[in-house]
Amino acid sequence: MTQTTSRGAGGDALVEGEFVFTAEDFRSIAQILHGHAGIALNEGKAALVYSRLAKRLRLLGLRSFRDYCALIEGVDGVDERQAMTAALTTNVTRFFREPHHFDHLRDVVMPELAERARRGEPVRLWSAACSNGQEPYSMAMTVLSVLPEAADLDVRILATDIDPHMVAQGARGVYSEEALQPAPALLRHRFFDKAPAHGADMLSANEALRRLVTFKELNLIGDWPMRRKYDVIFCRNVVIYFDDATQERVWSRFTPMMKPGGTLYIGHSERVGGPAERQLQTSGLTTYRRIDA
Fold it and tell me: Does 161 participate in catalysis according to the annotation?
């Protein structure tokens, strides 16, 4: 790889490497990422941005970050803006991550929801940043552990993510035995089957899980086409990448989507702020219940 420290239109290169990457390039990328996905970047992330997007430049046959910025800023840059967002998003997930949330869902929330479902009432749950599906399938296993007939009732889980590749992986529902290790053994054996066609150590979500979960692409700062209200929303470890104003806006959009008494689970590093605080009451560790304002 050719090293360069040459000057670009925005001044000195921020990162030494194959392509000139200036402060102006970084600002353009950060602005577009924030506008498209709500993610806030500071200049301390310059090396990470360079390393991840240099791969995109090579793939696209571009010669400079200036050319790349021109592409993503243009009317024909929609697909590449999506690819850029995927490249700069950290998809850290695992089955039953932050297990206290699933204990709370099983022991506190689901008994009442199970009664409602058995009376014929609709029950709706939403995994609002589902990554590759491990969170919504954990939710589904928890629901089925309390309500084994859930898939035959009006119970559904919506799983959404901004990254279409993650959404496709979730819909595929195939994971390694290692990935499934955090899941309780009883649930793992009950709801996942061997999938030798995908590899010797691969497991596939069974029909009971698949019938409960629907995967859709959704941008949390974009339009939300859903019209139903939700009994449970998981939105964990994603708004930490937003600035304060965007975080408050997202929390405030969730509360109208929740049924009275509905439950919101957030990440261990996150706190609800802004107007949504008036409608949410702490119900456990990083767990909130909707109340009347």
Answer: yes
Q: How far apart (Å, rounded) are the C-alpha atoms in residues 144 and 80? A: 39
Question: What digits encode the pLDDT tens for the residues 239-253?
Answer: 988 989 999 999 999
What is the pLDDT at residue 43?
A: 83
C-alpha dihedral sign at 42, 47, 50, 53: negative
Query: Which DSSP string corresponds to 119-140?
Result: TT--EEEEETT-TTTHHHHHHH
Q: Any idea how long the chain is?
A: 293
Joined tokens for residue 120: 């014929």
pLDDT, position 3: 36
Residue range 181-208: mean pLDDT, rounded: 96
List beta partners, residue 123.
155
SS3 category, 282: strand
Q: What is the per-residue pLDDT for 1?
A: 36
pLDDT in tens, 62-101: 999 999 999 999 888 888 998 898 888 777 799 999 999 9
Look at the block and give the residue holding tokens 């150590």: 201
pLDDT interval class at 17 (50, 70, 90): confident
236 an active-site residue? Answer: no
Domains by residue range for the chain, with CATH: 23-88 (1.10.155.10), 99-290 (3.40.50.150)
SS3 252: helix
Looking at 52, 94, 106, 210, which residue is catalytic? 52
Which tokens sit at 216? 């859709």
Query: Taking the alpha carbons of 166, 168, 171, 172 in that order, is the dihedral positive or negative?
Result: negative
Instruction: Determine which one of 25, 56, 161, 188 is catalytic.
Output: 161
Dihedral pair phi/psi, residue 17, rounded to 5°: 175, -160
